[in-house]
Amino acid sequence: MCVSTASSPRPSRRGRLSTNREDTALPMTHQTAADTAAWTGAAAILFDLDGVLTPTATVHERAWQELFDGYLSSRAGVDGYRESDYFDHIDGKPRFDGVRDFLASRGITLPEGPLDDHPGNETVQGLGNRKNAIFNDIVSAGVEPFEGSVRFLEAVLERGLRVAVVSSSRNAPAVLAAAGLSHHFAVVVDGVVAAEQGLPGKPSPATYEYAAKLLDLSSAECVVVEDAVSGVQAGHAGSFHSVIGVDRGAGRQTLLDAGATLVVNDLGELVP
Q: First and final CA of the chain: distance in angstroms?
């Protein structure tokens, strides 16, 4: 977990990064006027992690399905886990909120249990910790970031914009390290930081606002980049410069309806 700030970006694995801040707008050769307007005057990019920088959103989906397939198999008369459940009840939310909301969709209420509850216990915290163990087992093999997202990140840093990661996951530092991206982000606001600071999770804008504060910037100077509906809603609810939606499965129109300024299929589309 890291919540300090740095005055300049560190070198990229692909070469040195410029710290020139004379022009904070990304160079664009093929975007629409709306795309260009989304960047004018921005000083920082606040990235969600899973599904935006790394394909770990699919790992989360797999871990959630494995968790609830196992759990629901012992409960007769309850609908099984469906692919749509991830986007409807879980995506982008803090882990234990995802557990509660999914269980509520099946009319199930469990005791909370302690934060460090054993993964074998049938409590909200126990199920959440079981899902985390499944996720970590999968991620331990390594994470390859999205190529387009890395190109976009490097273009952002070359133009002197500040960057931060804002993730509901408590595993964000480990995922960034596994993906080889840690050195780019001096500010990481993850689920651990949110709990320590008493910040509500997405769709509240609080974690994004906290990241802007750590960068010594106003929300109006920061662009939010999200793939989850709850994350887009968080960006829209705050006074941010703009919200870039990345459609990894939620649906373009769904993200626009949630408040995205514009939606792309891949962040590489925003790099000439």
A: 33
